[in-house]
């Protein structure tokens, strides 16, 4: 690796740490600032922060890898994600921003659930926090796997060394800078990713005489590559599109809606966020598409499909640009890890420590607990990520489904149905999470396939959770006057 590549990456790391230092000095003196940035994010920062933390290493490794292997049939996931994100912006974002502020300034998703349903027993908060910590630890490990693969493939370093380097930098700025550091670094990282997903496939395309040459090469290798429905049943297409359902329940994404400085900025945030996402998804698919043609034209032999972006970065560009592109992958990985670490830390601090251990803890003490929680979650996730053969896409899909099924229906019903009760919320959350786990690990098959292979686990999880919420609410509708008044107060904001 050329020395200039290392210089570019070094400058990237320094920039991330500098942002963390800035945020440490500006917004971490109290718990609200550390966890939610004081609800002061401008729409551009909130939008790119949501996008960058959403896409993770999956956008530059997982999705191009799927496109490389499966062809256009893998695009259904991208369609589902785009539609899901758009509905999330239109339906969930504005009301959640208002609700969390009206509900006694709820700072976390479990905190919102507890205050929205006036849960004095703390059961709802405890269950929600447990779900977040379990699934985010798994989710964070997927990012560390991607980081380990990046350093292994690009620098020839041992996988575990790459994993440790990735974790060390992201933990440093997350621990000290809190939510503002995470959001500002996400903004910078989102800009880097945006340039990278346009630049790489565009330059790769110049290595061919035209689109016809590319398609002829790909068709010769895989005659069914351009078949949108190749090997896909209706169930498989539904499963791919169902990735979009996950958006309604992802704490690291919806917390950006909570942190936006005003609900009036939501349309601007939505336009920026959806424009960024469209380019990112199309660019990622284009990387996989051009990758198949390039690998076969220049006879590069067998490669790990999830590293095709890395291959292009190393063979097509000047070392300085290579460093920038490697920084883009690190940006995708680190933006998501930092967001997940912070949400997990916030839950451990506000929903466990402050609620069950020391209710009168000072803000200074709670911020310190938050920082230690970041370190704890990162260590556990790092241990899980030591398995080099873990698939980034597989790890992400399991965690994505867990959150989507456990929290998605609950978020939607809680924002629009004033009769919903805390008993219904608890039932929906538990049944959604348990259904996903059963679907993944149950030793049953359909047509010779595991349940998870036959249908993506978020589909049965989301359906079962929704049914549970509806049935339990109908049996005993909400009657607490305080909860009904809160709902009416929010309704007035949208009239």
Automatic annotation (TrEMBL):
- Swiss-Prot/TrEMBL GO biological process terms: proline transport
Bilayer disposition of the protein: Multi-pass membrane protein
Task: Output one GO MF annotation.
Answer: sodium ion binding
What Pfam families does its record include?
SSF (PF00474)
What's the main place this protein lives? membrane
Show the coiled coil region(s).
none
Membrane-spanning ranges: 6-24, 45-69, 75-92, 122-139, 159-180, 187-208, 228-250, 271-295, 315-337, 366-386, 398-417, 424-442, 454-472
Compartments, as annotated in UniProt: Cell inner membrane; Cell membrane
Q: Which UniProt keywords apply?
A: Amino-acid transport, Cell inner membrane, Cell membrane, Ion transport, Membrane, Sodium, Sodium transport, Symport, Transmembrane, Transmembrane helix, Transport
Q: Name one GO cellular component term.
A: plasma membrane
The reactions it catalyses are: L-proline(in) + Na(+)(in) = L-proline(out) + Na(+)(out)
- Is Lyase included in the keywords of this UniProt record? no
Q: What does this protein do?
A: Catalyzes the sodium-dependent uptake of extracellular L-proline.
Q: Which family does it belong to?
A: Belongs to the sodium:solute symporter (SSF) (TC 2.A.21) family.
Q: What is this protein called?
A: Sodium/proline symporter
Phylogenetic lineage: Bacteria, Pseudomonadati, Pseudomonadota, Gammaproteobacteria, Alteromonadales
């Amino acid at each position: 690796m050329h020395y200039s590549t290392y210089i570019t990456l070094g400058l990237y790391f320094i920039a991330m740490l500098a942002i963390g230092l800035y945020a440490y000095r500006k917004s971490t003196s109290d718990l609200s600032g550390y966890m939610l940035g004081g609800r002061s994010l401008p729409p551009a920062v909130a939008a790119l922060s949501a996008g960058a933390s959403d896409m993770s290493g999956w956008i530059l490794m997982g999705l191009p890898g799927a496109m490389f292997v499966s062809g256009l049939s893998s695009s259904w996931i991208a369609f589902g994600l785009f539609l899901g994100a758009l509905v999330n912006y239109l339906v969930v974002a504005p009301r959640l921003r208002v609700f969390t502020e009206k509900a006694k300034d709820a700072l976390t998703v479990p905190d919102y659930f507890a205050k929205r349903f006036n849960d004095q027993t703390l059961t709802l908060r405890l269950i929600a926090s447990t779900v977040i910590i379990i699934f985010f630890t798994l989710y964070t490990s997927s990012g560390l796997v991607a980081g380990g693969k990046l350093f292994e493939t690009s620098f020839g370093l041992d996988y575990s060394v790459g994993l440790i380097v990735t974790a060390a930098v992201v933990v440093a700025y997350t621990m000290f800078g809190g939510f503002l550091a995470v959001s500002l670094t996400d903004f910078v990282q989102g800009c880097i990713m945006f340039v990278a997903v346009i630049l790489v496939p565009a330059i790769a395309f110049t290595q061919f005489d035209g689109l016809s040459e590319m398609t002829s090469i790909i068709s010769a290798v895989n005659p069914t590559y351009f078949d949108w429905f190749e090997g896909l049943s209706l169930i498989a297409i539904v499963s791919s599109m169902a990735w979009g359902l996950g958006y309604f329940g992802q704490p690291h994404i919806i917390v950006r809606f909570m942190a936006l400085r005003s609900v009036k900025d939501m349309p601007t945030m939505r336009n920026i966020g959806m424009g960024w996402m469209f380019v990112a998804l199309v660019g990622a698919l284009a990387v996989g598409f051009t990758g198949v043609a390039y690998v076969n034209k220049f006879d590069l032999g067998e490669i790990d499909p999830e590293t095709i972006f890395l291959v292009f970065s190393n063979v097509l560009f000047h070392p300085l640009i290579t460093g920038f592109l490697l920084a883009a992958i690190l940006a995708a990985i680190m933006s998501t890890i930092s967001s997940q670490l912070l949400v997990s830390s916030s839950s451990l601090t506000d929903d466990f420590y402050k609620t069950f251990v020391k209710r009168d803890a000072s803000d200074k003490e709670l911020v310190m607990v938050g920082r230690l929680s970041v370190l704890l979650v990162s260590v556990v996730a790092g241990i899980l990520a030591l398995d080099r053969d873990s698939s980034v896409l597989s790890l992400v899909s399991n965690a994505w489904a867990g959150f989507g099924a456990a929290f998605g229906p609950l978020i939607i019903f809680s924002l629009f149905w004033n009769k919903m009760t805390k008993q219904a919320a608890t039932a929906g959350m538990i049944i959604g999470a348990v259904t996903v786990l059963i679907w993944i690990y149950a030793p049953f098959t359909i047509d010779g396939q595991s349940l998870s292979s036959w249908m993506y686990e978020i589909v049965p999880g989301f359906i079962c959770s929704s049914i549970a919420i509806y049935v339990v609410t109908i049996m005993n509708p909400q009657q607490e006057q305080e909860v009904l008044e809160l709902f009416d107060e929010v309704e007035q904001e949208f009239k």
